[in-house]
Design a protein that fits this description.
Length: 375
């Protein structure tokens, strides 16, 4: 006998098409997975406009007005605090069996709703709750502590992030890794003719260290003059912002490509010889998993959760210092390994251990454990 359908509210402060980061992709993958199993998820989010209803990949989306937050942001407060009362109102107006937040301020709304209704609430924390992360924005610590007190469970994306919960907050977080859709991210008909490196992370995010990658790529080009570096261009203004940050996006071989559409992203990952993510403080590293699902070996910085993904020989290289020469050496070694036909199979095999279907099932197990059920 199949489980009864659950009405799940997924609370995220912003969503597609306004913002298309890893957190938004994780939320949509989970919602789509729940819907495919006969459940009834709805995404509750905010946007700078009037209330609107729509759908993404068949999942209903309620977009609430987002009150102005510019003054708070200028004073370094946690983003998206202003829309939390409306999130709570939307929860109260619906008939949900469970509230699942993916941002700590939204978890406060979910916790209050839990207190009023007795129905389960949880938070999936998309970052790392260490000292630096918690102090990065004003009121972030209070939001996270409120979620720990008021929600039935808090989920971390990796063992590294869960260890930070234990060390800094004395809390035992559950670990549910995000997953990749292997039907979308899969090997293509062949690699690009020229040695190609892709970095699909947000190039405007400083901790992704795209400037370091461009410097290292210059050293790679000294040995492989026809090499290419494909960077993500999430907005039309990305090139000028990167130039303003001192990143030479006009260097020979560097290309900026819109990788927002996941089919386009999957095609570029499958064509690349290597995918690179030289970032620090990664709570998971979804772009690494997506590249491996396409059979593409990866290079990552030996920090955060990346060693949990690049965890065996033959699928990529970890480099141990944020210096151009160290990164360039790792890129060159991994470019050479891409020619081995067994590399693609090993990468694909690793990615299939962490699929979106598996992640959805883990969340459903947690929902049942917390007592979620139709009312």
């Amino acid at each position: 006998m199949s489980d009864p359908a659950l009405r799940v509210a997924l609370l995220t402060p912003c969503f597609w098409p306004e913002v298309r980061r890893g957190g938004e992709r994780i939320t949509l993958e989970l919602a789509a997975g729940l819907a495919a199993r006969g459940h009834r998820p709805r995404i509750l989010t905010s946007h700078p406009g009037a209330p609107a209803r729509g759908a993404e990949q068949g999942v209903p989306v309620l977009r609430l007005p987002r009150p102005p937050q510019g003054r708070l942001l200028r004073r370094a407060y946690e983003p998206y605090l202003t829309h939390v009362p409306l999130s709570y109102a939307a929860l109260r107006a619906g008939r949900y069996d469970l509230a699942h937040a993916v941002h700590a301020p939204d978890a406060l709304a979910a916790a209050r709703w839990r207190g009023r209704t007795g129905r389960p609430a949880l938070l999936t924390y998309m970052g790392i709750p260490d000292h630096a992360g918690l102090r990065e924005r004003r009121r972030r610590t209070e939001c996270v502590l409120g979620a720990l007190r008021g929600c039935d469970a808090v989920v971390a994306l990796s063992r590294f992030a869960a260890d930070a919960f234990a060390r800094w907050l004395g809390y035992e977080a559950r670990v549910i890794a995000p997953g990749v859709d292997p039907a979308v991210f899969r090997p293509g008909p062949g690699r690009a003719q020229r040695p190609t490196i892709i970095c699909s992370a947000d190039a405007e995010e400083p901790r992704k260290h795209v400037g370091l990658l461009v410097e290292a790529f210059g050293l790679v080009r000294a040995e492989l003059p026809d090499a290419r570096l494909v960077l993500s261009r999430p907005t039309p203004r990305t090139p000028e912002r990167l130039r303003a940050a001192g990143i030479d996006v006009d260097a020979p071989g560097v290309e900026l490509v819109s990788l927002v559409d996941r089919d386009v992203l999957a095609r570029h990952c499958a064509e690349a010889w290597v995918a690179a993510l030289p970032s620090t403080d990664e709570a998971f590293g979804l772009v690494v998993l997506e590249a491996m699902a396409c059979g593409t070996p990866v290079v990552g910085y030996d920090d955060g959760a990346l060693p949990e993904l690049i965890d065996r020989p033959g699928i990529g290289t970890l480099f141990d210092a944020l210096r151009p020469r160290r990164l360039a050496d790792a890129l060159l070694a991994t470019l050479a390994s891409a020619a081995d036909p067994a590399t693609a199979a090993r990468c694909r095999e690793r990615a299939l251990e962490l699929t979106s279907d598996r992640s959805t099932e883990r969340y459903l197990e947690l929902y049942r454990e917390l007592g979620a059920g139709p009312r």
